[in-house]
Structures are given as C-alpha cells and as structure tokens.
Design goal:
Length: about 500
Amino acid sequence: MWDIAVVGAGIGGCYLAYRLAGQRVALFEASRRVGGRLCSAPLPGVPGAAAEYGAMRFDATEHVLVDLVLHLGLQEEVFPFDFGRPENLTYIRGVRLREHQLHSGAQTLPYRLRPEELGLARDGLVDLVAERAMPGFSAMRAESAGCRGRPAVLAVERYRQARRAARWQGRPLHEVPWTELTEAVLSPDAAALLEDSGGYDGRESAGSAAYHLDAMFQTPPEGGYLGLRCGFQEVPRSLHRRFTQAGGLTFFGHRLVRLERTRTGGYRLWFDGDDQREVLARAVLLALPAHAVECLESKALPFHHAAFRHGLASLHRVPAAKLFLTYPVAWWRRAGVARGRSTSDLPVRQLWYWTTPDGDGPGALLAVYADGAAHRYWKALADDLGPAASRRPGPASPRLVERAHDMLLELHGLTTAPRPAASRWQDWSGDPYGGAWPVWRPGYDADAVIPVMRRPLPGEPVLWISDGWTPRPGSVEGVLEAAERVLHEEFRLPRPVWLRPDAVCWDVR
C-alpha cells in the first residue's frame, strides 16, 4: 500500500509529488508525458522555436510560480513576453488599425461611441465597467500593484471584502454575468468593440462579474508578461525529474476509472490503460481536470454527495484550440509587425508572432487562437481528419490550413505570401480535458464551493487539486497555491525555503 497516490502528472501533480518526495508516494498518469495543459514542442523547420500549445505566459506578481522557476534554475530561460505593441494590428468590421490607433480615440473607428467612450479602447472600456460595478476598483488595483509584503496582503483582503459587499441591482457580483454588466454600462457599439477586438469570445470566456473582476485585479494594470524560451512545460518536467531523482515512481498509461474505500482503511484505485491495475493508498491526491473526474465511473467516490455534484456545475470549461503555422520566410514583416499579438473579428480572433528570426529566415505564427464560437468554426474544419487526438498536437487538415492562411493575408492587408511549410493543431475541448481553461459560472460563490471541491469527502484524506476550484481558476499560480495549502494543512509540510517571505497568495480563506 502506498502512503499517497497522486493521480495526474500535470503541473499540480508533478508539484505535489516533488514536494512529497521521500515518502511512499506514487504518481499515476494516463498519458505518456508530464505537463497536462502545459505542452511545449519544437516546430518543424524553425530552430529554437518552442511552441506553446497550452499555457504560454505568466506575470511577475505570481509569486509562487516565479520563485519556483528560480528554484528550478530556469531564470536564464525567462524572457519578456510581448502582448499588444503599438504596431500590432486590429482588424474589425473590415477596417485595419494599428494598436496605437485603437487607443487614440481616432474617429476612424467603425463604431458609434458615446463621447465619454472615445479614446478608451479595450482596457479603458473594461475599466469603466469595473468601476461602475465596484466603485473604487481602479484605485484598489493600483494600490495593490504598488506594494509588497504585509501591505500587499492587506490590500488584497480589502479588495476581497469590497467585492463581496458590492451589489449590482441588488445582486452580489458572483450572480451577475460579466456580459450583462458590459451591455448595461456601455453603448451597444462600445460593447461590440470590446467583443470584436478583445480576441476572446466574451459570452463564453467572461464568466461571472466577480470572476472577471478578480482576474483583472490579479493582473497589474501596467505589468508585463513573461515566458520561458525552453517552453513552459519545462517547469513540470523539472519537478518530475527531481521527484524521480529522489526515488519517486511514476506509472504512465494509467487512467483512473474508479475510486472506492477499502474495508480495512485506505482507498482502492482502479486504473485502465496498458493493463488493469488495482492500487491501494492511505491518501489520494487528485490532480486532474474537472472533465477527467466527471469521466470516472458513477459509483466512484465522491459522486453521491449533492454538494459535490453542485460544485461540478460551477465551472464552465471554455472550448479553445490553437493552430501554429511555419513559413519559409516571416512574410508578416512586410506588414510592419514582428512581435506581440494582433486581433480580429475574423474566426482567427487572435494571432501571435511566436517567433520571427532576424533576416529572411523561417518564421512561425500562432496563427489561430480561438475559443467559443470561433473554436467551433475551426473544429468543423479540423474534423476532416477524423476524430482529433486531444492529447498530442498534430498536423492540421489541409482545408483548415488553407482557410487560416487566407484570413491571415486579409488581416495583414497582403495579397500574396509563401504557403505554410508545416502546421500543428491542438484542440483542448476533447478528453481528458474538456476545455482549455475554466471560468466561474454566474450564480456560484467561489468561497462556498472551493472548500467542498477541495475536500469532497469531509474528514477524509481524498483531496482534489485542480486548476478549476481556486481563486485563480485556469492559472498555474492557482494550482500551485492550492497545492501548497493542501500540503500545509493535510501533511504539515513547512513553507518552502525558496518561496519569498513576502509572497502574496490568493488561496487564503
């Protein structure tokens, strides 16, 4: 019997296994790799390009993740991750604009905005909605971004109390859809501008107003993003190597199908995959996405609890996919762009100039990053190749590549460009993930739901550490904070020596 069974070798499972190394702990993974939705891979024909098929960036205020990157010796791999640059393009309603034009309030915007909305563009319009929903939000956000240590902790707590107390038409903000707020505060064309230029499907990705405000608050208004040249997946890989070096064992090809109590104490885990395997453990840490838990047999623990079934419905898993295209030459330089992100109301929605080597060498684009309705458009084309294997990126269908290439030319205002040399497509909506990232649905109070989902069997050592039921859903930082909380409360592990003493963690309740 194992002391601890960790199920799932994504970032959460690898971190838990690493921190628990030295005990009788085993790590079980359904696939043949570690990382989960942290998935990095080279692109054919573009040396040095680590394409990120899943999560690809983080910011410096994510203290646990940043300190972990330093602890793992990856500091030389960190680089500034460009977001919107002045020369990047926004192609909306048939009008091609540079980012600086979008933010200048120029009358060339193809939208009829109110006088107070001119010049606000995306960020300003979002700030306007946030301030109307929660007066003082912008000041609280700026205060939190400008302090460290205990003052930062107090600033976060003041914000959380104010957000819980805020009401919109008599309702707490966790009951209000963010889209309802935007449509009530903004003119119809301003709301359309947000949707068309934002790069995401707001109706599927925005979630509740409380979730959206929390996500905004957690991201500094002037903060920049960071990436890893070696690929984000190197974080769980490094953790897994250290776990293995400490004598830990990993069992790949093991998909959990059932979990039940034993009569003599502990738990029996049934795995399917390379072979049928029964495993006994005294404690179980489920480091799995929600969809993988939903796929367990119905008689598995803990589905008979009504509160747990209620919690399962609290998150919407956003369907999303990415398409990378490589080219013999970085032709988009002719349009005056080389880095950052461009957006459009075309089904492409957002694209990233993932790597653009100097000179006339090959280049690559994250050519399509689509969620919601745009994801369904591309998925229909991807299905030309038959059922997609969601666990591993692969070449896209010829029709999908052709459509994407034509849209890229339209977005950049060009008529000709070399054809793509290679493609890589990844759809996160299939098994075992069920979506690319989770958002809180309106009507669910995270403070009430998270404790139930974290420990679905009250008083028992079966805990679920996922990227969903955290105050930072969908983020690596949220998973790490949740894991640290469980390790401290359940296993009495001390705070890691490498974590800065003034770290600000949201997973405090």
